[in-house]
């Protein structure tokens, strides 16, 4: 059974003071038995300026630090880009790639997503690939779309590698409620069937207005959740970690 993964992106919501306070709360959560033992994986993706502090704060814990983006090249005349090599050197374990906001606001296409995925892999970072349909459709059509996105993202990767896939339908991002559970389950089943073992060691999580209670509702259709604003309260994040611990069979008071 894939170990549950609970990941949270802070996007650009917090100022520095609040970001550091949040990291302290994550450090405390990382001391819980299921996380400390590695039965539940906990990852936090802060803004770029907070990544060094996150790596330092969480360095002695089992919590993982990720970045929300990276450049497709490791070195060169790329003003404003951030190198995957430098993220790895800081202590990052993973990096988010292909989020709907990067695609729709910043115009990232499949070719750029593939280049960034290759950059992550060659620097030893686990790519957290965000996939999802732009408009609400049938689960079958959504799954086909997501599988194509994953295949295109991995087009430049020539080795089998660990991949985290976040299914995030665009229409559920920022909504008051997540996508309906039966839709998510059907799409995720379709993604697994469509990919087979082609993506290597794959962890499939759901994001898009996700919060406490959803992991239990989705059951074995997903391996975890990718959280946003509904986990900005550390107590809400703790609830999801406890749900994941229960799934892993290691929940202890």
From TrEMBL:
Its main location: cytoplasm. InterPro entries: Aldolase_TIM, TIM_sf, Triosephosphate_isomerase. It comes from the Bacteria. Its EC number is 5.3.1.1. It catalyses: D-glyceraldehyde 3-phosphate = dihydroxyacetone phosphate. It is found in: Cytoplasm. Keywords: Cytoplasm, Gluconeogenesis, Glycolysis, Isomerase. Pathway: Carbohydrate biosynthesis; gluconeogenesis; Carbohydrate degradation; glycolysis; D-glyceraldehyde 3-phosphate from glycerone phosphate: step 1/1. GO terms for molecular function: isomerase activity. The keyword rRNA-binding does not apply. The keyword Cytoplasm applies. Homodimer. Belongs to the triosephosphate isomerase family. This is Triosephosphate isomerase. It comes from Georgenia daeguensis.
């Amino acid at each position: 059974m894939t170990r549950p993964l609970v990941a949270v992106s802070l996007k650009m919501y917090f100022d520095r003071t609040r970001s550091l306070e949040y990291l302290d709360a994550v450090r405390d959560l990382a001391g819980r038995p299921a996380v400390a033992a590695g039965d539940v994986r906990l990852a936090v993706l802060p803004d770029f300026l907070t990544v060094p502090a996150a790596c330092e704060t969480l360095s002695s814990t089992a919590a993982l630090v990720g970045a929300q983006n990276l450049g497709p090249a490791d070195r060169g005349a790329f003003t404003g880009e951030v190198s995957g090599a430098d993220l790895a050197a800081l202590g990052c374990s993973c990096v988010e790639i292909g989020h709907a906001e990067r695609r729709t606001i910043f115009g990232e296409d499949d070719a750029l997503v593939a280049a960034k995925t290759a950059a992550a892999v060659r620097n030893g970072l686990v790519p957290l690939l965000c996939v999802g349909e732009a408009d609400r459709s049938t689960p079958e059509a959504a799954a086909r779309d997501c599988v194509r996105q994953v295949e295109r993202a991995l087009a430049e990767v020539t080795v089998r590698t660990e991949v985290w896939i976040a299914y995030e339908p665009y229409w559920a991002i920022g909504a008051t409620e997540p996508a309906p559970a039966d839709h998510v389950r059907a799409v995720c089943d379709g993604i697994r069937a469509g990919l087979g073992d082609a993506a290597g060691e794959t962890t499939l999580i759901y994001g898009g207005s996700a919060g406490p209670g959803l992991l239990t509702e989705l059951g074995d259709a997903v391996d975890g959740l990718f959280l946003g604003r509904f986990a900005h309260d550390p107590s809400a994040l703790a609830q999801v970690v406890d749900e994941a611990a229960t799934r892993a069979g290691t929940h202890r008071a």
